[in-house]
């Protein structure tokens, strides 16, 4: 393999050796069932109490859910997917101008997860962008395709509003003040991973992304509407989350697990790949400000349940997360009391 990225435009006929997982770690695709009862929450529902109840159930039993009628326009979504596809179709020399394997960069094209640290690579290329404040980060984003900056910035603004709405509702569902989560997380950062999983000659032997939880507060994932690949761990079994038309998949991240004192779960999830079909997904991550002090909400520890996690700043957590391999034990374990 000569190129550092997979999306060279030249298809692979065999899987390079450094992508092959040991037998015991492979995805066993034929054994994976569809998740039949993925919670789907209609945010346009007039009955607020029902939304809150559905959220409490989804966040505690699943750690993820899908939202429909979420207020992000169909146009913003369609344009985002289109420009993301166009980006990954650019000539490899053009894309490589943006390549970096340094996770501290605020804009970079990269591949796998943490190429410098990991032993086995993942079948994924990704464009990673910091997105908030837009005025600060947008100037460094790709200017090819020419509509990239406008399209992605519009999408980011709409998704951020959705994220804030969800944080308020999730706070309420925990019995906290509506603005508790936003106040605790401070001026939240927003990052985006535009994931491109090229067609893979041997999907049984590798992952697009291996099992991981998200280090941030909340993830809003736009899945390719035609190609499946997202799987979550539910009751000890991996199940596939099929794309639902017009929906976002929302994951609880590690910070909301900590803040909820373990009541809500940061869900283990992974991405598998397909023969003959590329897949895209666009993950928007809402992240606490670096100096936000994360600890179990007082109201959730008052009634006799001890705080499971010690207090930490998000900067401390994030550094720890990137110093490890993606598929190690849950990073929150390190912060347990
Ligand atoms: O591609 C997917 O469905 C999952 C992406 C994901 O987990 C991530 O970007 O962290």
From TrEMBL:
Signal peptide segment: none
Domain Fe2OG dioxygenase: 188-288
Short name of one Pfam family: 2OG-FeII_Oxy
UniProt superkingdom: Eukaryota
Catalytic activity: salicylate + NADH + O2 + H(+) = 2,3-dihydroxybenzoate + NAD(+) + H2O
Swiss-Prot/TrEMBL keywords: Dioxygenase, Iron, Metal-binding, Oxidoreductase
Cofactors required: L-ascorbate
Single GO MF descriptor: metal ion binding
GO biological process, one term: defense response to oomycetes
Family under the similarity heading: Belongs to the iron/ascorbate-dependent oxidoreductase family.
PANTHER family linked to this entry: OXOGLUTARATE/IRON-DEPENDENT DIOXYGENASE
Official protein name in the record: Fe2OG dioxygenase domain-containing protein
